[in-house]
Amino acid sequence: MSILEYNGAAIIAMTGKNCVGIACDTRLGAQAQTVSCDFRKVFQFNKSFVGLAGLATDVQTMNNLLTFRKNLYELREEREMTPRVLSNLLSNLLYEKRFGPYFIEPVVAGLDENNEPFLSGMDLIGAPVYTDDFVVSGTATGNMYGMCETLYKKDMEVEELFETLSQALLASVDRDALSGWGATVHIVTKDGVISRELKARMD
Amino acid sequence: MDSVFGVEYDGGVIIASDQNNARSILTYQTNLDKVAELSSHSAMGVSGPNADLVNFSQYISKNLALYELSNNGLKLSPHAQANFTRGELATALRKGPYQVNIMLGGYDTIKNQASLYWLDHLAAMAKVNYGAQGYASSFCLSIMDRDWKEGLNQEQAVAIVEKCIKELQVRFLIAQPNFIIKAIDKDGVNTLSFGADPADN
User: Fold this and answer.
1) Quick check: ipTM above 0.85?
2) Are A33 and B94 within 8 A, CB to CB?
3) What are phi and psi of A127, to 5 degrees?
4) Global pTM?
């Protein structure tokens, strides 16, 4: 089994009309065994969210590192980090460990300084991809790509985006043994963040 | 081969582990205390090679004591202790990893709340209501899934732990005759029972 599949994860991020959404499952496993059902993999940094899929220890380490760097940035720059900057920082942090990487495949979603939606995904050594529709990461990417490609529409409003994101995630993780056991969705708009727990199959 | 498990109840947390110390075909001792007391109101059950077990638990407990000495008696909460422990495991991971799997339990005397943390040797950490490390998890998690609920008292939590121990003694291939059970509550760390006195060497 690949080290990226040891703990299990599923993350989807999507853009909507003047909003972005990001959703993750909440399972923490040790291969086949489930240890916890409230291990969240999506972390908030002002108006940006970072979803970290992969080895749980590196998810937690990278979250700590990003929080540290974000705080340092805000102290020095006296302004908030935009999602583009955060994504670039993450990419750099990952490439620094090019020959001994963190085993995570992150996703960045947020609203930039003009409240325009921003999305990016990257691999474990920091190679970024910028899209305007959706990014996925985790152990059920095949399922998630299929669901997103089918259900996604441009310029969805908040409620429709929430519904689409939720259904795409739930259907994907239900066919994957290593992810699921609960789900959390966050929708970011210029007025704030709406977060909801989904009622998911707990198997 | 170590069995380590923990159960949280209303007002405290129980940590239990077997007392075997063995390597290959030889049993060195059957009265080892694998539940290391970290501070006045926290303890961790550690599974893994004896060297790492002893070395890591002493390293953590002595660093926590140093914190209190250096900060006018200010104590670290169980949440902080668990995160510190995770940090040390994570730092060592890519240098010279500690091969220890841990159940860390503590009682926060300021918030008046108990907490239990599951930490594996890769330094992944999860706050749980109950958990087990090692082969014990295959036998005991389903018992805990069935019997645990919110608002247990200490007696009920101990009953769950004892049920788990009986299951291991019936069904687990490796004989583990002795178990040590500790409770952490507002009054500190208290050894409830042991199969063999760790002090008898």
Assistant:
1) yes
2) no
3) -75, 115
4) 0.95
